[in-house]
């Protein structure tokens, strides 16, 4: 737990939340500033700032919960779909430095955009540039 983390304070029970799901390792609660009816945050109970800080077991628990909860959340609010996303790092829009997965129910005609809209303009990359990026990413993964 982190003393200055609002999500750790929610896990500890120091700050109230509208909890919708809880296990030993994961907590899900409604976003206090929702983008849509049913907007839910799914978090690991232990503090981790970035996705890469999660160990395999905790990442599995977190994303198993997301996979299980997403269709249930959609059903609960009669949504037509959902955006599921993680803002990982300040440059990506992460406002709370504790890993959290957004499950945002979507409704036909709600005026929202696909997840692709968050990145802004698409880069104009040649096939050679894309091949070079693929090699760099593969090398970093194998690294």
TrEMBL record:
UniProt-annotated catalytic positions: 100
Annotated HIT domain residues: 6-113
Database matches in Pfam families: HIT (PF01230)
GO biological process: nucleotide metabolic process
Motif annotated as Histidine triad motif, chain positions: 98-102
Record GO terms (molecular function): catalytic activity
SUPFAM superfamilies from the UniProt entry: HIT-like
Record protein name field: Histidine triad (HIT) family protein
Biological source species: Halorubrum trapanicum
Organismal lineage: Archaea, Methanobacteriati, Methanobacteriota, Stenosarchaea group, Halobacteria
């Amino acid at each position: 737990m982190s003393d200055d983390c609002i999500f750790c304070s929610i896990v500890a029970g120091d700050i109230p939340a509208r909890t919708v799901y809880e296990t030993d390792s994961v907590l899900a609660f409604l976003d206090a500033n929702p983008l849509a009816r049913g907007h839910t945050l799914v978090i690991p109970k232990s503090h981790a700032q970035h996705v890469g800080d999660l160990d395999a077991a905790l990442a599995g628990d977190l994303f198993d919960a997301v996979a299980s909860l997403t269709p249930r959340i959609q059903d609960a609010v009669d949504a037509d779909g959902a955006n599921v996303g993680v803002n990982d790092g300040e440059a990506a829009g992460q406002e709370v430095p504790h890993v959290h997965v957004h499950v945002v129910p979507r409704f036909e005609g709600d005026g929202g955009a696909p997840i692709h809209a968050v990145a802004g303009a698409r880069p104009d990359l040649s096939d050679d540039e894309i091949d070079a990026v693929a090699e760099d990413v593969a090398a970093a993964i194998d690294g």
